[in-house]
Amino acid sequence: MSEPPAKRSKMESNTAPETNPYLAHRQEYQNGNGLSNGASGVTGSVDRKEHPLNGMVPRKVTVDQAKKIMDGEVNPFKNLSAWSSNYKKILEQRKGLPVYQKMQEFLSVFNENQIVVMEGQTGSGKTTQIPQFVCYSDLPMLRGKMVACTQPRRVAAMSVAKRVADEMDAVQLGKQVGYSIRFEDMTEQGTTFLKYMTDGMLLREAMNDPLLERYSTVILDEAHERTLATDILMGLLKDIAKRRPDLKIIVMSATLDVAKFQKYFGDTNPTGLAPVVKVSGRTFPVETFFTQEPENDYVEAAIRTVLFIHQAEDEGDVLLFLTGEEEIEDACRKIRAEGEELANKGMAGPILAVPLYSSLPPHQQQRIFDNAPPAGKDGLPGRKVVISTNIAETSLTIDGIVYVVDPGFCKQKVYNPRVRLESLLVTPISKASAMQRAGRAGRTRPGKCFRLYTERDFVKELEEQTHPEILRSNLSNTVLELIKLGIKDLVHFDYMDAPAPETIMRALELLHYLAALDDEGNLTPLGAIMAEFPLDPQLAKMLIVSPEFGCSNEVLSLTAMLSVPNVFMRPASQRKEADLAKAQFSHPDGDHLTLLNVYHAYKSNEDDAKNWCWQNYLNQRSLAQADNVRTQLKRAMEKFDLELCSTAWEDRNYWNNIRQALTCGFFMQVAHKEGEKGSYMTVKDNQVVRLHLSCGMDTTPEWVLYNEFVLTTANFIRTVTEVRPEWLLEYAAEYFDPESFPANSETRRALQRVLDRKLGKVSSSGHGKDRKEKKDRDGKDKKKKRKAE
Length: 789
Description:
Shape: globular
CATH class of the largest domain: Alpha Beta
Helix content: 25-40%
Radius of gyration: 29 Å
Protein name: RNA helicase
CATH architecture of the largest domain: 3-Layer(aba) Sandwich
Number of helices: 28
Domain Helicase C-terminal: 302-486
CATH topology of the largest domain: Rossmann fold
InterPro entries: DEAD-box_helicase_OB_fold, DEAD/DEAH_box_helicase_dom, DNA/RNA_helicase_DEAH_CS, HA2_WH, Helicase-assoc_dom, Helicase_ATP-bd, Helicase_C-like, P-loop_NTPase
EC number: 3.6.4.13
């Protein structure tokens, strides 16, 4: 696969004209009054006096100056080439957006204030237009800097960047306008000046650039979604603003809790409130319908409603909200099949069903903007149906939507720190989300919203707002990033909503056991490297220690496979065939090794990947993504001089070495078999669990390590591999000290038996010499110490 462009390195603010393409028309500023009169001429048909940026001073640009460039003949950001006809067509569309009418007010407030809150209703155009307005006023390219615009989701970052690149008449996406998401950086050093990125990527950049020096303005878009990364960024940016008076910050939100943002960022303002610019949306009335009774199967009810709309309602596209990829793809198939049947019977026109979710490739995401199919032979209108996760609530605007079908659910991350359980659960949405969804139907004309729940449930059961992610997440990765940023007082960090102290303590505990933090809470050398990997701490630890076991190449592949959506496909109508196909890759020792077998087989059949994946019921998109992730992680390994090595295939320890590396990262996710009925008890947290049905092991080993805790009708552990208790005692001696378990627990007795057997002793108490042995069992000289015993 071709490598993405290298990441942009910091350019000094006094970059010379000959090294900065945007400075070709000038040599210096004079007393802050724009371009110097002695500036050199410009190559091409436009001389220096006619250059569009002539006389413009960063952050003093007027709306008339900006509009003059937009309506001019040449593109100042692309070698003074003439604006294309497509640019002029799009510009006319942009002028119709509500936010365009607010350009003068926005530039006035932006130029005069360091921090601005932007309240823009969905469909106002703020996500695409405000960053462009900033570029015209801030002129970051003249100082070798960039404007960053964060998005909560990767789909939005990619899609919006493409749209804005078109609007700015850029040569191609990744040049003047680019994006950066985890494992993919589509920017060009020295050329990109407007970068859309996920909030998590900007947070990671801050670890190596604590003052975000490469940026002149940072825009936090969709701040009302209150993702974990956005909440942490808000606290960091408040602090950075005090140390960098030249940094501008814009917080953009839908009409939810704007006053809270104003107050949070208003510390330095005499009024105690940050200034706000308000933009209304371009909406029409939306008629809302509720069901009379709750629906037992919301997916089937949603499909039924879509087909009813297609048959009975006037032309106009449909937006259906579902919770995840599996639901969405299943609904797409059924809508296509039943829609085709209706069309063949002459009961409805042709139908186009297109999915939208985060892991969808960019070229497939763009299909949501396709036109509805033309009318059929009988004149019945064609219709487009977009089936999406909640990304379509606010992050993306799809013109042509007239009907919204809202079952009232979404997937949310939920974390219980007491049992260290983080699950992705299907939960009811909030009233705020329901209002956002309904608003999508009134973008271009009056619309209708069909809510598949009762009006009573809407009023009585739905909460007003969605809880911020920081209050319902495992914070281990966030705590590691904050400590890497030099923030020690995690309890008193300037959170907009502070997480529970217990959640922070659990994160610190995990990082301590992983040896990422020392006893004083400082980063260890291992922890400093772990923080640099865009992975959960357990995966990062496993990968970093893998060279010690001679299996870093294999663990690299396994980590990539664990970082992408499920590779196994199991269609409802072909489950037996899919299970047989999966069985050929199955490894008796566990699912992690099965994943490795799949990856190796995929690489061996890469020349015919599409056909091979189809025959073996594997998701080609996920496997290709895993290959890309592996390439990025391999670069990180090389950056830290971590050896890339493999144990010889014929070596009997080949698989054991991989399992030992796994143990080093995931020893806190281990379960011990209890009784003969196949149930397990998670170590320390004491949750009774069973192996998930997708588990490929034929046996039920005494000790297993798991990747995921699944909470459905019962507690299950998924992606499971057998581990040996000797490894737990060797690589996590403190965590698995038998004396740290209740005296009467089966886990303690099992660990003590292993320890006694290992030491050649017979003891049932777990005291005396055994206790001393545990303390001695640590450090590089442990073999020597054991011999002395």
